[in-house]
Amino acid sequence: MNFLDTWVLTLITFVPLIGSIVVMLIPATNTELMKRFSVIWSLIPLVLSVWLAADYWAKFLASGQAVMAYELKVAWIPALGVNYHVGADGFSVPLIFLTALLTTLGLYYSARTIKHRVKEFFALFLFLATGMFGVFVALDLVLFYVFWEIGLVPMYFMIGIWGQEKDRPQYSAIKFFLYTLAGSVFMLLAIIGVYLDKGTFDILVAAQNGGVWTTAPLLAALSFWAFFVAFAIKVPSFPFHTWLPDAHTAAPTAGSVILAGILLKLGAYGFLRILLPLFPGPAAQYGLIIAVLGVIGIVYGALVSLAQTDLKRLIAYSSVSHMGYVMLGVGAAAWALNQTKTPELLNSAAMALNGASLQMFMHGIITGALFFLVGVIYERAHTRDLEKFGGLSGLTPAFYATMMFAGFASLGLPGLAGFWAEFFTFRGAFAIVPVLALIGVIGVVITAAYILYRVIQNVFLGKYDASKIIHWTTVSGHHSDGPTDMERFEKVTLWPLVALMIILGIFPTLVLVYFNAAAVNLLNNLF
Amino acid sequence: MNALAVVRLLAPELILTVTGLAVLVVDLVTRPREDARPAAITALVGLAAALVATLALVFTAAGTVVATTMVVDPYGLFFKAAAIIGVGLVVLASINFMAGRSRYLGEFYALLVFAALAIAVTVSATNLLLVYLGIEFLSITSYILTGFLREDKRSEEAAMKYFLYGATSGAVLLYGISLLYGATGSLDLTAIGQIFTATATNLYLGLAAIVLLLVGFGFKASLVPFHQWAPDTYDGAPTPVTAFLSTASKAAGFAVAGRVFVTALPAFASSWTLFLTVIAILTMSLGNLVALKQTSVKRMLAYSSIAQAGYIVMGLAAINTTVPFDGVSGLLIYIFAYLFTNVGAFLTVAAVEKQTGAVDYPAFGGLIRRAPGLALMMTVFLLSLAGIPPTGGFLGKFFVFGAAVNQGLLTLAAVAAVNAVIAAFYYLNVVRYMFFIEAGDAGQVRVSPGLQTVLVISTVMVLVMGILAQPFITWATQSVTMVLAMGY
């Protein structure tokens, strides 16, 4: 065991926290130093996460193993048997990379666009990263809960402080906080229940011998639903999604990116890391409900997106729709546990889980890019009203091209990243819940409608009418006579994401290999 | 037992007595200079000595009975330490806050020390008569402290209300004690416990006594429906006194309730746990719902203190014998975390009040600009009150929730969980004012060094309890072992 194998996850998790403290100590007047330091500092977890992904692939995936690796287990509260237990497997490794990437890009983008209360913003952003990494590496339920809750606080501040007045930031911030908290306090009770049944808070140990409360169906069901609701609120699944459009709309650009790109994945990750392994019985029993909620989310979210006139709100609702695929995939896989177990069924369940986890990753990249793109236009036009745009394609070609890539990836065009996630989800779900999958496909059609009609056509095509938006500025806030194209820092932020969309569209295996190993491993344990 | 051993075992009480008297003497000597600082420093030195004496006993305490009515055991020592720390913090914070508000500040500090003494006596009493005397002693010092700002009508009103409720509930408590005496012929807690367990006679008398005792203890701990005095008293009392009343004084109520119920009335456990469950649900729900509607931060914290008492009493309601979720440990952990959290929160209010003269929400507007340190520390306190990790408040909630689930009180646990969400709303409302709302023309808030020290200590303790919880859990679980073994 060398140094990095033991400490890499701890470093990734706590390096941002140290950065956050350093930012707070930098003199208030030196905002430039804070910005530079934050961006450069955030490269440390990014580099480590790339190393992590490469190392995990070389050591384990290349030889066909899907193990929990980089584990570190130190007694934290011995009186309760709570350990600082971290580790990473195929589910967490790609998500850690995604978190690190979006954190760096978010900080880099914000270095130019955040102009007031700079110190607080960068300190909170780094602090938030610690919370998110922590959830993805935690293998102890108490540790998981602590990180889960820690992430709430900085995001609450981000929405409340840097939100635009007309988006009701204070209302959105508290709504976000209370929704998540409402789910998580019941999760806390269920976590205590796990301890009372299994005598441990360790996620891996609790998953052994068929999971938790195997002899007490009522308690098993109650615990299952407590965890489920906590995660479903975060995902967010219909009908717990109403906090999302408000929070996303009010948050500053980089905040929305993190919110959509990572925070939603925390809930989906909870399904894979805790819900299915710890409660295979109830999961099999109620899998269909998860899948139904997922399909409702897909169709309903897409329909509501179609009706939006605010570009950011539209993207926000599209997240409800797209996270529905994750629910559908997870639900289908869970429901498969309930049926006659054949190799074909296992295969389909694995496909569904692969689709769900791919969707987590792809959605993070695509929606991250879309929210950055909303930021690009909003910083210039100071409105997001779709009715006021039109004909921007010729005036802002780089912006247009980037939006085309992100939009097409979002609607699942083959050759771009989003396609594979949808393909695997539906391929898996068709074999298990054919009717639901069929209804879900309607969502894909509506997605194409709102991306093409509402976004591309409304914003870029048609005739540019100079009278609709009176006051254009450049991204730095200077007056300009019309829309200006993306500047270099915006390209630097967005094009890595576009590159990933293309690369993963052609070689989805690059991430699929991680998720597949973990999904097959999970299902083998459950079947 | 020789006299020296008794002196050693009662060292905390003796030191506190001497300190209280010494403060009066120092005050007498320095009075002409109109400066209460020497008196306050004397009090602080004495409290520190008493704390050292208490902690020195913690590791050796074997439950020795002293003077036939007091016991020196880890349980009592835990609460003594908590009370002395709480009073110490309040004294330190009062130096600047109270300066110029009263001409009799020497007495103020002496009374605070005597209040600590009263708590020390109450929490170690094993005789119902001493329990009553201790509570009355504590009440009388508290009445005077509450009404200390004699020119302030609200302070006077607060003291009067507190006194009327206190006198009534004291009488009810005494009636309850007399019923227990009538039923068993003894005032000693252990003896009463043995008689009830051995012979199933006079059970109805016992049940009636429990209800009456609950009135007395519930008054001190501000449990619904014996809480009516609390909002006005907390609101009207000088803010440092409120910090004391809502933490150390309240802790005494819980400590004595725990000891009396567990030691003397284990035969009725199923009854009083049921009562306490209902009371817990009422207390937290009412406290939280009314707190939602407040326009003053101080009054909001007053109702929040009631709600918090509801969570604390969950521990006693869910009492059982499986470590670590035995309930009583949770109660102790919660109280210890709550002590620092609530003292910190009320004293932040005191700092803002000292500067602006107001305690309503707008007075906290833009505090992050006017006093960044204060705003950050207040955020820690509020998050701890809301039970967000990694704070001591989370640890406390974790343990009482754990006890409730462990004991199968799922309704209670669910109500508590819903309440935690409601509470987060109004706690974060203060955060909203501090961070999201512009300051307007309100000036900087300067914090005196004494208050600064208290706030920093409280913040550090709140975070340390959340992050390095182990020593506190061990201390709490060990403190209750002996008491639980004796009765329950």
Write the SSE topology.
The complex is a heterodimer of chains A (527) and B (488).
Chain A: H1 3-25, H2 31-59, E1 69-77, E2 82-88, H3 92-113, H4 118-137, H5 141-150, H6 152-162, H7 169-198, H8 203-206, H9 217-234, H10 243-250, H11 253-278, H12 280-306, H13 311-336, H14 343-381, H15 397-410, H16 417-432, H17 434-460, E3 472-473, E4 479-480, H18 488-506, H19 509-526
Antiparallel strand pairs in A: 1-2, 3-4
Chain B: H1 3-9, H2 11-30, H3 37-58, E1 64-66, E2 70-72, H4 74-98, H5 105-124, H6 128-146, H7 153-184, H8 189-198, H9 203-221, H10 229-236, H11 239-264, H12 269-292, H13 297-317, H14 328-356, H15 367-370, H16 372-386, H17 392-406, H18 410-436, H19 449-467, H20 470-486
Antiparallel strand pairs in B: 1-2
Helix pairs in contact in B: 2-3, 2-5, 3-4, 3-5, 4-5, 4-11, 4-14, 4-19, 4-20, 5-6, 5-11, 6-7, 6-11, 7-9, 7-10, 9-11, 10-11, 10-13, 11-13, 11-14, 12-13, 12-18, 13-14, 13-17, 13-18, 14-16, 14-17, 14-19, 14-20, 16-18, 16-19, 17-19
Question: What keywords describe this structure?
Answer:
heterodimer, A: 527 residues, mainly alpha, two-stranded antiparallel sheet, 4 strands, B: 488 residues, 2 strands
Structural overview:
With 527 residues, chain A is mainly alpha-helical. Chain A has a domain at 284-527. Chain A has helices at 3-25, 31-59, 92-113, 118-137, 141-150, 152-162, 169-198, 203-206, 217-234, 243-250, 253-278, 280-306, 311-336, 343-381, 397-410, 417-432, 434-460, 488-506, 509-526, and strands at 69-77, 82-88, 472-473, 479-480. In chain A, the strands form two sheets. Chain A has a two-stranded antiparallel sheet. Chain A has a two-stranded antiparallel ribbon with strand order 3-4. In chain A, strand 1 and strand 2 form a beta hairpin. In chain A, helix 12 (280-306) runs parallel beside helix 17. The longest helix of chain A is centred in the C-terminal third of the chain and has 39 residues, at 343-381. Chain A is globular and about 70 Å long. Chain B is 78% helix and 1% strand. With 488 residues, chain B is mainly alpha-helical. Chain B contains 20 helices and two strands. Chain B has helices at residues 3-9, 11-30, 37-58, 74-98, 105-124, 128-146, 153-184, 189-198, 203-221, 229-236, 239-264, 269-292, 297-317, 328-356, 367-370, 372-386, 392-406, 410-436, 449-467, 470-486, and strands spanning 64-66, 70-72. At the A-B interface, helix 5, helix 6 and helix 7 of A face helix 17, helix 18 and helix 20 of B.
